[in-house]
Amino acid sequence: MSEVIRLLPDNIANQIAAGEVIQRPASVVKELIENAVDAGANNIELHIKDAGKTSIQIIDDGKGMSEMDARMSFERHATSKITSAADLFTLTTKGFRGEALASIAAIAHVEMDTIEQGEQIGTKIQIAGSKITSQEPSSRGKGTSISVKNLFFNVPARRNFLKSDNVETKHIIEEFNRIALTHPEVGFIFSHNGNVIHKLDGAGLRKRIVDLFGRNFNDKLVPIEEETDIVKVKGFIGKPEFSRKTRGEQYFFVNNRYFKDSYFNHAVVAGYDNLMPPKHYPSYFIYLEVPSNTLDVNVHPTKTEVKFEDDRSIYSIIRSAVKLALGKYNIAPILDFEHEAQFDLSIEQQNSPIRQPEIRVDSSFNPFKSSSSGSSSGFSGSGSSGSFGSSGGSNSFKSLKPNKEEWEDFYKITEEAQEELKTEEEEEISFEEPLKSSSNKIQLHRNLLLIQVKSGAMLVHINRANERVLYDELMEHFMLSPIAAQQLMFPYEYNLLSTQKLEWENNSSTLKRLGFDWDWKNNTLVLSSVPSMLEVEYVTQCLDGIIEKITHEELDKGELVHELILSLSAAATNHRSKALSEEEMNYLIDRLFQSEQHQYSPSGKRILNTISIEELNNYLS
Predict the structure, then answer these.
(1) Could you list the residue range(s) of the whole structural domain that residue 259 is in?
(2) Residue 388 to residue 394: CA distance in whole angstroms
(3) Would 540 be classed as within a structural domain?
(4) Residue 181 forms part of a structural domain
(5) Structure confidence by residue, pLDDT tens digits, 106-136
(6) Under a CB-based contact definition with an 8 Å cutoff, are residues 117 and 321 in contact?
(7) In the listed set 328, 360, 382, which residue is the last one of a domain according to the structure?
(8) Domain CATH number, residue 131
(9) Domain CATH number, residue 565
(10) Residue 235 DSSP code
């Protein structure tokens, strides 16, 4: 019998291992920057081309390596971080598996130029597909430089599964942000295709957050700090009023290592305790410090999942720390204008004792009451003579005869139900028919429209109705041709982060079709034209919404157009309404009811509500 099991060649085994560690260019960036941090670097440079697909280069001023160490670093399971299994439970460094460089070298062209601290001559090594093609002495300054080119050159199937440059760049930026937040004392330079995205000096945590996410973040942060025997908690959380509907800047770190944990994320949200609107998420930058023997980081190849020995206690401590921070800095609950006041109890109801609801039944009612017998019982409680199958006995079903008057009452109730159904149908029809001809429209407090309809009265939110009408018009127009633009008399300047500038440029064709035209002054967006329906005083609000959509959400082209037009229509209509003439009222209502979604605004808020005559009468009863 022939043997079928054989050992895999090293190059194939390395490619398989690389599939776990190196999933995309961002994985390479993560592993190489972490190695530079472990080498004690004070300054690290990251330069990428074509979202890392063409080239990734990391330059640091760390300790460097000797000639032998430089060669050994590309062997599988070769590491300087651990010497025994016990070291796995006292880890203080990032990389320890000894798989990163070997995995990268298996699927790319790699060049390393390094010099050991205190030496005059360094070493330059070139590797392609796990094979060393050259090794020679070099002359360079302090530290190490690693270049990774043509990622997945020998695994074309993996390269084909990479996303667009825009998406891959987002992943690289996210990995960079995680490491930069973990080590604010380290200086970083980050460039893409020759354009500098970040230039960060070593500083404190708060400044590092502001440098990465913008100056406006400085006013959004609340310090959080708690120290117990189980865990030390420190960092910053966002103020409730700055929460968003999308998950944005949410970062957990433990012992200077980034990790993901939905359980602890729930602890943070629970700490806000109804201070945020529903389905909103806060920003947070929370750093945990626990004894290394109570933490297992060797769970996943990418090391973003960790296990805690006492996660339940840590959950409670995080939630308490968030509550304490919000209370200490006098963070007040926000007003919820979406609150349904009709569910509130009045003062009399709040002070009155709670009573159990009672159900009253007329026990004497019997629709099968016999016209010849005064008995109200349908069958006997005992005895064979009272059974359903009995042919005798005065209480059997056969002896009961229906009362004609009772059955007439039964059909009378049915007719009443039909009348109610007919009324409901008329109410549905009344949504359109009376509105077109009725002039009984009153504008209340500038932003509400009260209209008389057959079933009672209809209340329409003017801003939301305008938003729905404008959104539908823009969507229909956008599919055929660019939206009309208005030239600005004076250029409008809007400051962006480097990452936001990159996202704006990635979506430039769509934004130009929306009516925007611009130039750049470093990272400042200088607008020369904006969509024609957008008033200048609401440009900032519109840009805020657009930047949030293109920066924090991964959307396909159709979803992106929807979100951008939603931001535009909301900004163009989200202000105090003017007094409307009767013609303007009629036009708005006519256009609103031409929409298939006239009940709700594009952002999902209710536009109109019908109040029946009975409900109106009850207000005065």
Answers:
(1) 220-328
(2) 12
(3) yes
(4) yes
(5) 889 999 999 998 888 999 999 998 888 999 9
(6) no
(7) 328
(8) 3.30.565.10
(9) 3.30.1370.100
(10) E
**AA identity, residue 342:** Q
C-alpha distances in angstroms, 485 versus 145, 282, 530, 537, 572? 49, 35, 5, 16, 14
Q: Which residue has the tokens 């057959």?
A: 454
Which among 14, 31, 37, 294 has a CA at the least distance from the CA of 148? Answer: 31
Lookup: tokens for 218: 């400085």
CA–CA dist 260, 475 (Å, integer)? 38
- Helix, strand, coil shares of the chain as percentages rounded to 5? 40, 20, 40
Beta bridge partners, 49, equal 55
> Please, what sign has the CA dihedral across residues 551, 552, 557, 561?
negative
**DSSP designation for 41:** -
Among the candidates 165, 200, 235, a domain finishes at 200
406-425 pLDDT tens trace? 555 555 555 555 565 555 55
| pTM to 2 decimal places | 0.67
- Are 278 and 309 members of one domain? yes
What would the two tokens of residue 354 be?
A: 């709670």
| Closest CA relative to residue 443, chosen from 263, 616, 582, 281 | 582
Q: Which CATH number is 258's domain given?
A: 3.30.230.10
Asked whether residue 171 falls in the same domain as residue 291, the answer is: no
Q: Residue 138 CB: number of other CB atoms within 10 A?
A: 15
Report d(CA 286, CA 256) in Å as an integer: 11
Number of domains in the chain: 3
Per-residue pLDDT at 318 = 95
